[in-house]
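ok here's Phosphate transporter, seq below lol
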Amino acid sequence: MTPSLCFSPARNLARGGGGGKGEAFLPLLHNSHLYLCRHNSSSFFSDTLIFKREDKHNCSTLLFKAQPPKSFFLNLRPRNLKFINPSATLSSFAEAGDEGEELQETNNEQKRSGMAKAFNISSNTAYAISICIAVAALTLPFLMKTLSLNLSLKTKVLSYVTLLFGFYMAWNIGANDVANAMGTSVGSGALTLRQAVMTAAVLEFSGALLMGTHVSSTMQKGIVVASVFQGKDSLLFIGLLSSLAASGTWLQIASYYGWPVSTTHCIVGAMVGFGLVYGGVGAVFWSSLARVVSSWVISPVIGAVASFLVYKCIRRFVYSAPNPGQAAAAAAPIAVFVGVTGTSFVAFPLSNIWLVAIAQALACGTTGAVLVSKVIHKQLGHLLEKSKLSAEEPDKLDNSRTIGLLTEVAGPTGTQLKIVYGVFGYMQVLSACFMSFAHGGNDVANAIGPLAAALSILQGNASGAEIVIPIDVLAWGGFGIVAGLMMWGYRVMATIGNKITELTPTRGFAAEFAAALVVLFASRLGLPISATHTLVGAVMGVGFARGLNSVRSETVKEIVTSWAVTLPVGAALAVLYTWILSKLLANLL
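and the structure came out like this:
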């Protein structure tokens, strides 16, 4: 095969191309290569000159159907001449083709929607899922008991609109606040984004259905004094709708930018803003509001203390053990027993008799502990056996040293580290499920409370002592949370995992387990605490357990600032929406 001639650099052509004409080619030919292809013996050069420009930014090929000028031959110097194999030229073009294919794939990837990327599905499938959710949101209210009552057409239309407002708020809760439950698991790698979304969907709905009524009773009539609006039921109804719309709007903006804000802050601020502007100072239950605000301050502190203690216990009793892997495998069932027993007793006791309820909770906890122990030994049994065989004799000097809860302990390495992270990887998944269930029970009230109060106004019993929240309304709120989680939950969930401090399976488990305990028991007591505050406090507690420098202060400042902004923004939007809805619904009310 006849070799091709390559002249490098190609500025020689410009220099010999005929004065000004050659100089015009300098920008084009800089860092370029000239390939002169010989087709037969009778003609040394073909009529085609191929210029290939290659740099780190682009690769272009120019074809000239012209004979090279005579002056060009005069500038051919042996020192400027080198022979290359034609395959090199072909491979260069092949590489350019590969780069084009990669660029095309990148463009196709960029065209995929965020939901499609999160679930690793096609854009058409993502659009189909979104359309199905939208159709369900618009049609399911017609199957609910609220619209099947013997009410006037006007009341049914307003009830339908109210349910849609409640769904919008619940949707945004799922899109933003669910990251509190699953974000740390995604950040530490214990769960993929798809696994986290699917798991949270089931547990958020279950928590809303089984536990949502405890906090909803506080949110529906514990913030605004309904008696102040006596004879102004229409205004109170519009104010409740405006609170839902204002909270949903701010949450949607925050979710779009990936800001983890407090939904509880938002809805309470919106209701207080409406009450102050349209009802005066006496329209707000200040004692109830003080109780809520104090819980916002107390919950991150309790979360930080709880996670600090949990993480220190892990380091004390697992990391400092002669065989950390075996210690982790033994500690996991204990943690599961505590978590499942507490959840069973607080969330859904089978009996009102304390002894029976305690026995039921203990039975559930024992069952969960046994199952987890079997799973761990089945999945990590080979590593546990290896750790037994390779375990060295403990140092007598180390055994004689007293190790306290606050003593700094070096972490395990090698096989022991794999076992510990493997065990707590499973544990973090369970703690994330625990947190997700507790979050669904606590935060569904932010949508269902005002929704239930607005529906009871339409049904004429707003002044009743207690509003019974139908099971289908709780399920409606749970469905809204799941829908928002599936469609937009990835935005905040993908960014919250490692922003405050670096997380590992042990740290993530300590933070989630502690935060879930705080949120769960607060829900049972009727305290509408912020799950965001609790988890942020818990993650900070884990960071403080490693040292003050382990917590990223800038991130904490940003989060606290977003909390401070949420209250006034929610209040301002509620006032604005009340004015707008008063104009729009004037003919229906």
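fwiw The longest helix spans residues 354-390. kinda neat tbh
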